Amino acid sequence: MKWTDRWLVKVNVNKCKVMTFSNRPNVTVGMEADYMGQNQLENVDSIKDLGVTFDVKLRFSDHINDKVNKAYGMLE
Fold first, then answer.
1. Model pTM?
2. What string of DSSP letters covers the chain?
3. Beta-carbon count within 10 A of 36 CB
């Protein structure tokens, strides 16, 4: 029995992504694709979660740039 079934958790597979965090170049986890049920999950290099942009190297430069650009946009 899967964890989601046991705890009656509904998961929107279309919103699920896979991201591997590493400070090494070109790191991949396994050669096969990741699946949730019958659906293949997309592998991404960055993702926004709860308003914070994360990248594979846990550098927050993209997040900071987004916030600075938003602040400049509010000044115009």
1. 0.65
2. --HHHHTT----GGG-EE----SSTT--S-SSPPEETTEEPEE-SEEEETTEEEETT---HHHHHHHHHHHHHHH-
3. 13
